[in-house]
Amino acid sequence: MQGFLVKWLINSFSLFIVAHIVKGIEVPHPLTVLVVALVLGIINAFLRPLVILVTLPINIFTLGIFTLFINGALFYLVSKIVKGFVITGFWPAFWGYILFSIISFLLSLLVLGEMK
Q1: Tens-digit pLDDT profile for residues 15-44
Q2: Residue 94 structural domain
């Protein structure tokens, strides 16, 4: 349970940073960041594997690069689900998710690497 909370906070902080860096991504309230991180985690856990499975032929053909577009689309989908989280288009979602992934990975490496 503690690992889940730490990962959730890391993702929330990553999202907060992304919202301040990428133009076209807006999170007006800090509590919204927590909700967005939770919804994004749920979508990545349940919907993302199904979408990747359905698009497996195109993923194989593009050597996995299409997965980046799937991630961007799911990030954009979260903006449609969570009120107060605004992404103005697909490209801010695409670049925002890439940056979110990098920041989240680095923070997880830093925080969870020290906890072991």
Answers
A1: 999 999 999 999 989 899 999 999 999 999
A2: 19-107
